[in-house]
Amino acid sequence: xxxxxxxxxxxxxxxxxxxxxxxxxxxxxxxxxxxxxxxxxxxxxxxxxxxxxxxxxxxxxxxxxxxxxxxxxxxxxxxxxxxxxxxxxxxxxxxxxxxxxxxxxxxxxxxxxxxxxxxxxxxxxxxxxxxxxxxxxxxxxxxxxxxxxxxxxxxxxxxxxxxxxxxxxxxxxxxxxxxxxxxxxxx
Length: 187
Fold this sequence. Notes:
This protein is mostly beta strands. It has a single domain (6-30, 42-182), classed as Porin, CATH 2.40.160. The chain is built from 1 helix and 8 strands. The protein has one helix at 6-25, and strands at 43-54, 57-72, 75-88, 91-105, 111-126, 129-147, 150-162, 169-182. A hairpin with a 2-residue loop joins strand 3 and strand 4. The longest helix is centred in the first third of the chain and has 20 residues, at 6-25.
């Protein structure tokens, strides 16, 4: 978001998150709610946007992602991959990452909290100058299923950037995403 100050970016993300949370809640009804599960063998495909804070600078990133789910002895696990891009002024950035997550269902609602390690590779370039960094860290979030085939995700990602030419640094991401689920049973 070139030209946007830090407060404007944060307000935009909070508005988007509020709209997504209201979609999760849905209309109030007197009927019994439908319970939806994340099933073993399900695939998730989606896209997300994030507000990224590194040192004192704020930016944004768009990404596509996929996850594969397993249920083992009542514990839901996933392994996933992501590819993201951002552009600010003359700086282009491409991220490729992997993540392994453990999910815990919240009682009586179609939502799961999750946490797990993540890492990857980041290529940045300005003109002919380029650098490769290695982000490693932790993801913590909430995934809500709207139906067996649609989900909304809100998460926080901490990344320590390794291999910086000057000094390693921390990056914080607030991520919201929407996805479709394949092979997750029938409605």
